[in-house]
Amino acid sequence: MTAVPPTGRREAREGVGYLVLTRTFRAPIEDVWAAVTEPSRMERWIGTWSGDPAEGQVLFRMTAEGEDAPAEPASIDVCDPPRRLVVRTQGGDGSQWQLELDLVEADGVTTLTFGQVMSDPEAASQIGPGWDYYLDRLVASETGGDVGSVDFDDYYPSQSAHYVAAFS
């Protein structure tokens, strides 16, 4: 196991606490948008979706969690290609997550800023390392790296204390 340094931080947006992580890509914004919205591209690093996004909801299945991971509804609140996506997911346990992706391109480099509404330090201790892990899988997928070499054990539980401190 090789501990990976955490990259997430707490940020307040209009008085609401967010977990925020950033990644950069030497790629056009449209390419990064495709990596985070097209089912076949997403499946490389996190999961896939089915349904008609024009209806405002799809079913999302985290294939990276295993073949038996259930599909869960994801409501699309904002879709402004190729710059902004806001979705809410409903977990089987009744939990609801609001996730935000913002993309900006400058000089051939696209910056992805990921945010999730977050206030609970205990939840952050698990969710923060999870998003570091998945976003590093995205980077590996988009840069020709080996997604399979990104090991969750390198993120959790070693990053947990960072996220508890950030949200306490």
TrEMBL record:
InterPro entries: ASHA1/2-like_C, START-like_dom_sf. CDD domains: SRPBCC_CalC_Aha1-like_6. Gene3D superfamilies: 3.30.530.20. Residues 26-140 form the Activator of Hsp90 ATPase homologue 1/2-like C-terminal domain. It holds the Pfam family AHSA1. SUPFAM superfamilies: Bet v1-like. Belongs to the AHA1 family. This is SRPBCC family protein.
